[in-house]
Amino acid sequence: MYTYSATQWIFGNEDIETSLIRLKKYGYDGVELAGEPYKMDLERIIELLHQYEMVCTSICGIYTPERDLSSSDPAVRGNAIQYVKDCVDMAERLGAKLVIVVPAPVGKTAPDPQSSAAAEWSNAVNSLQEAGQYAAAKPVKLAIEALNRFETYLVNNLTTARRLVEEVKVKSVQIMADLFHMNIEERNHTEALRMIAPYLIHVHIADNTREAAGLGQTDFEPIMKTLAEIGYEGSITMEFLPPVSNPYLAASSDGAAEIFDDYTERSIREIKRVLTRIG
């Protein structure tokens, strides 16, 4: 039996309590919170999670240019490492099992002018080793997310994510799979999932349009069957978004509650329907 959650930052500027009420209404078990440890009232969030009998499944790191783990600028890289550590502390406090990590920030589609891809890869490895060792002591895991080529450049597919994890060689540093990015970058969903099976600790669900599951062309049946066959035991986390070029724009928007309700209900209903079908 999977734990179902949704990424709260997709609801934009909506108050966290409103989001939790929606998730509870449609049968979710928990929430994935944005990695903003400097802005969130964690005591209030803990109280609300208890009130609505929800869990915090994970922390979704928000990787902006000043949080660049691959940067060749020591100050930027140091700030990024500290940010991941602070997200790990946030996860520990909220009882979350993992923090999502993107090695190069959203919007960075090439190496910095004074650097190179090889140098930035090495920087990312070193950064993840330090952050991963910190996480291991909590214990919290780091989940490397591969973003598509239009959003970042260093880690775009699961093959590259696996290579990065195997170079880092820290057990707390693992991999997550995001179905939207996979729709762009992977030639075969099920083969890609089997390839990262030893490291897979988290899954994001969205259709090929990045909308709620069931609104696009993605065939979720073989995907969910493969997750079951490889023994995946993490949460199923919905991360649907409106059609924006930069996903972080959604975090600062004031969306329509009726659309959020529709997508939230539709996503869990579709995945549960698929799981019932495959038994």
TrEMBL record:
Q: Start and end of every Xylose isomerase-like TIM barrel domain?
A: 22-241
Q: Which UniProt keywords apply?
A: Isomerase
Q: Name one GO molecular function term.
A: isomerase activity
InterPro entries found in the cross-reference section: HyI-like (IPR026040), Sugar_Epim/Isomerase (IPR050417), Xyl_isomerase-like_sf (IPR036237), Xyl_isomerase-like_TIM-brl (IPR013022)
SUPFAM superfamilies annotated for this entry? Xylose isomerase-like
The source's domain of life comes to Bacteria
Member of which family? Belongs to the hyi family.
Entry protein name: Sugar phosphate isomerase/epimerase family protein
